[in-house]
Structures are given as C-alpha cells and as structure tokens.
Design goal:
By secondary structure, this protein is mainly alpha-helical. The chain has helices spanning 21-53, 59-91. The protein is elongated and about 80 Å long. The model has no long low-confidence stretch (mean pLDDT 83).
Length: 96
C-alpha cells in the first residue's frame, strides 16, 4: 500500500520521514466507525434476542387493555372537569 505523505513537513525530532497526518486521521476515523458499527450490531442482536423472549398479549387482551385505558382517561377527564366547575363556582370565577 502506498503511503500518502505531506511533502516538506518533518516531524518533531528532525527525522527525514514525512508526517502522514491525513492518513493517520483517516485511519482513526475508520477505526472509530468500525467500533461504533460493531457496537450497533451487538445491540441489535441483543434486541432481536430479547424480542423473541417476550410473551406478547393476544388480540383480545390487547383490545381489553385498550378499552380500559380509554375508559379511565374519559373518567379522569370528567372528574377533572367536575372539580374545576365546582371550584370555579365556589371562588366566583365562573364564566371568566
């Protein structure tokens, strides 16, 4: 492999070998990129493995849980509105 060098630049110490800053920087970026890629692959494999172990709910369980959630949201909204209405009438701020 041919080394890319910067003509005329000498490293500290006065050696006659040119500094290869661009290649070193590129190699460092490539090594970092490869390290990140391997970490991402490892995380993805762990995710796939974990997803296979999950016990997913049936459609009936999913629909039932959704209806319970929507019902509770409606109840809390009505309760909050009722409390707000009562407090606003007690403090005389109704209609403002």
């Amino acid at each position: 492999m041919k080394r890319i060098t910067s003509p005329g630049k000498l490293p500290p110490g006065g050696s006659d070998k040119p500094v290869v800053k661009a290649k070193l920087a590129t190699d460092a970026r490539n090594a970092e990129g490869q390290r990140r890629w391997r970490a991402m692959q490892s995380n993805f494999h762990a995710l796939v493995s974990e997803m296979k172990r999950v016990t997913w709910p049936s459609r009936d369980e999913w629909v039932s849980a959704t209806l319970v959630t929507v019902g509770l949201v409606v109840i809390v909204a009505l309760w909050t509105s009722l409390i707000s209405y009562i407090v606003s009438h007690l403090t005389g701020t109704a209609g403002h």
